[in-house]
Design a protein that fits this description.
homodimer, 296 residues, alpha/beta, 5-stranded mixed β-sheet, 9 helices, 10 strands, 33% helix, 19% strand
Chain lengths: 296, 296
């Protein structure tokens, strides 16, 4: 069975055709400019390919709560042409198939749960650390929305006294995205994460900020596994540093088999940066079959 | 239909007989001493009352993950006689009815969701602020366990420069329970919360610590409502202060109808401190009927 998949980003749109095993058979990437320019070639790509449904994993904030009057709309994004754009209806109308929708990070989480390192688990946190920081959450076997969707990249952290640079987030002076995203690394050290790979002080500070946030996610969500993806996490030296600091912050309090085996608890994304697109395939498949009760 | 309900606390055990509307028909409270002393009178209380099932909402940490080899056991508690005590099996054997189990705070959350202020919602945070601080979480219509259960009272906070007292938590020098629980208030100000009711500086600091934690829960869980219970929250002057500080910390970032109507978003517990016991009634009812898939 074939599904269309769209990973909609603020910079580029990745479209794919895939099957129910998550295999990607064909793909196309185009820049994200305006809906008027960007939507038609995507619709053309999906047309006539025999897809049974389409899954969209999109940048946000986006209204993913079914039944809401603004369901399907990108909300208050700094990408002005996309503000309040309904990204679902044009595809439904043009392709005449069910369309599943979630956030990009919930999509990545679903990709890892369906095809990757979190297979078989029912409570999982996927965190991307790149241009922005965002979290996808699987809770009790379903992607978490709640009143909108998690925005866990904006949790408050304790700023290190060794960090004079301050936050790059326009809303918060001490949030994780403001202190630990790719742009905040660039602002602080004057170079990109990649160029700073051999500067231990960069990763000492970065791993501390990430560990602070993970500690809070662990106590709040109690996930069975934490997956870290995104450009900054390509710096693999971060993993052992983050694990060590999480255990130090926990200080023996939360006593679980998973934390005792932390190398398999805090892990890298496993699908070669296709986790979002593969999650979108699965969102399509779920749109075909799932009744998603938003109310108990 | 009649159900037994047990709200098991470190200080006292509250037992009740209730019906499926949450009505409590009979109750008994005894001190929590040792299992050998405390269990037999509770079993006697429930015997011969025609209950169809028993629900237990207990202090923790406790293994509530069905299928785990230590399911039903209180884990590493400072109440030494109860360490690793299996609180489920003795009731199952003596009463010969299904037994439902969850944490005390998940029980309270379930009480509010079934009979109280969170009726009809599917993502809810219940926070108790008293001798300890703990959170119950309903996510996607089910109580959240994950790898164990949330321990959200231990999230890291930024210590106010006006707060020299330090943390009362033996594990963490900057966690919420260490800084904002009843005992931490007593340590800092030399009197109990009740005696400090007319000291605005006490509640200024307390509401800041609570707001910091709520901000992080909101970004991480995206709950549709937050319910604050427990002894400290009987200081009702805290509510407007907490709401104001949450909005200030959010700084317009998370833009939802719920936050615009924050008086109905961050609310007091609504069941006269019976939320835990009423939740336990419902845990009993669910034990009769529910298949609870711990794995997707």
């Amino acid at each position: 069975m074939l599904f269309g998949a769209l990973e909609a980003g603020g910079t580029k749109m990745c479209c794919a055709i895939g099957d129910e095993t998550g295999k990607i058979l064909e793909r196309m990437t185009i820049p994200t400019t305006t809906p008027a320019e960007t939507m038609p070639p995507m619709i053309d790509f999906f047309k006539g390919k025999g897809i049974q449904a389409l899954g969209i994993a999109t940048f946000g904030p986006v209204d993913v709560v079914k039944g809401s009057p603004t369901y399907g709309r990108i909300l208050n994004t700094p990408k002005i042409p996309w503000q309040f754009f309904d990204i679902v209806t044009p595809f439904e109308k043009a392709l005449n198939v069910p369309v599943g929708l979630d956030t990009d990070v919930n999509g990545s989480c679903l990709g890892e749960v369906t095809y990757g390192t979190a297979k078989g688990l029912n409570c999982v946190l996927y965190l991307t650390i790149g241009t922005g920081i965002g979290a996808g959450v699987l809770a009790n076997g379903r992607l978490l929305h709640g009143m909108l969707h998690p925005e866990a990249g904006h949790v408050k952290l304790k700023i290190s006294p060794k960090d004079p640079a301050g936050s790059v987030c326009p809303f918060h002076d001490d949030c994780m995205e403001g202190l630990a995203s790719g742009p905040s690394i660039e602002k602080r050290w004057g170079a990109s994460a990649k160029e700073l790979a051999d500067r231990p002080e960069v990763w000492e500070l970065e791993s501390d900020y990430i560990a602070q946030a993970l500690m809070n996610y662990i106590y709040t969500l109690s996930p069975q596994r934490i997956i870290l993806g995104g450009g900054v996490m390509h710096q693999e030296q971060l993993f052992p540093m983050i694990r060590e600091k999480v255990l130090a912050y926990n200080n023996g309090y939360y006593d679980t088999p998973q934390l005792k085996d932390i190398d398999h608890y805090i892990v890298p994304a496993s699908l070669n940066d296709d986790q979002g697109l593969m999650g979108a395939i699965r969102l399509g498949e779920l749109a075909l079959t799932e009744v998603r009760p938003e109310i108990l």
